[in-house]
Amino acid sequence: MSEQGGRQGGAGAPIDPRQWEASRSAPATEDTRARYTEGEEVPDNIREQTREGEDPYQWHSGRTREHGSTDAVEFIDVKKSFGRNTILNGLNLGLPDNQISMILGPSGTGKSVCIKHMVGLLYPDEGDVLVHGESVPNMADDELFEMRKKFGVLFQDGALFGSMNVFDNTAFPLRQHTEKGEEEIAEIVNRRLQEVGLTSARDKMPNELSGGMRKRAGFARALVLDPDIVLFDEPDSGLDPVRTALLCELIQEVHAENGGAYCVITHDIMSARRVADYIAILWKGRIVESGPASELFNSDNQFVRQFLSGEAQGPLGME
Q1: How many other C-beta atoms can be found within 10 angstroms of the C-beta atom of residue 163?
Q2: What's the structural domain count of the chain?
Q3: What does the alpha-carbon distance between residue 227 and residue 260 come to, in Å, rounded to a whole number?
Q4: Tens digit of pLDDT for each residue in 239-271?
Q5: Residue 145 pLDDT > 50, yes or no?
Q6: What is the DSSP annotation of 91-145?
Q7: Can you tell me the distance from the alpha carbon of 213 to that of 200, in angstroms, rounded to the nearest whole number?
Q8: Is position 163 within any domain?
Q9: Which of 171, 159, 172 is nearest to 234 (CA)?
Q10: Could you give the CA distance from residue 266 to residue 287 in angstroms, rounded to a whole number?
Q11: For residue 114, what is the domain's CATH number?
């Protein structure tokens, strides 16, 4: 898929309320694992998000479009609950290698929980999570430790150590997880700081940095182990529109240079338009639809169209 084809395209025409009302009772076009099956027990918290008389998974076609790559990460029938709250309820999702993927969805729908499953910070109650074909829940502790080296993670606010300057924050994974000498560490750190435009800030402390600079420092740290997979947990959180655009541009540039599977968790639709090659939309613990960004932005699924265009009228309400 070309960069242009994956990162552009409209969200389709605005939703006509009459069209939405007519389609609310439309029959399912695909019978997949994402859809509700007769007799299936629906958790109370998911039922509470559903309008009276509606199928809780009416809009979940489960349609998975071809992405032209192998899956770096795969969720297979994953269920996860915290007490009485079911967060993931039979999640099936594949994230392609060598592409920038985005998991989008309403607040509280389990996007960050997905990240924690990928790196083995959480385990599914049922189902499996595969990283490059290997089952994360079935890994021994030493295997899990090695697997985590495949990941770089950019947390919401950069998650920098307040007592370390930018250079030492960025060097921390190398000192912690490798036997490299300080000269080689300095070479790697300086290269990564240059990539994110922070060469002149290497001696600054986190409290001396702007929000955007902290994000970039966290990005540099996420890259120092040359990860195969980089995870971004709402990287645009707290940034103004201009700095969000600049961060998106940086993510694109670094991915173009380094490759690998990038997975971005976000609410920001403009960020998805700018950088996403592949989009998966998560709601009620399952994928509504997933596929190349250009196709999702032109989906005929009413929920997908509403969410990606930010319309008030549609299947998603204040439930």
Answers
A1: 9
A2: 1
A3: 8
A4: 788 878 888 888 898 899 889 999 999 888 888
A5: yes
A6: EEEEEETTSEEEEE-STTSSHHHHHHHHTTSS--SEEEEEETTEESTT--HHHHH
A7: 11
A8: no
A9: 159
A10: 15
A11: 3.40.50.300
> Which runs of consecutive H residues, i.e. helices, occur in the chain?
3-7, 17-23, 44-47, 111-118, 141-148, 166-177, 182-195, 211-223, 241-258, 269-275, 293-296, 302-309
Token pair 């509700």 is found at 36
Cα distance between residue 114 and residue 276, in whole Å = 18
Domain that holds residue 259: 3-150+227-309
Residue 303 has pLDDT above 80, yes or no: yes
pLDDT in tens, 91-127: 999 999 999 999 998 888 889 899 999 999 999 999 9
CA atoms within 13 A on the CB side of 41: 2
Residue with tokens 């049922």: 126
Beta bridge partners of 104: 281
pLDDT-derived band at 12 (thresholds 50, 70, 90) equals very low
Please check whether residue 284 is in contact with residue 57, taking contact to mean a CB–CB distance below 8 angstroms. yes
Residue with tokens 């040359």, as numbered in its chain: 226
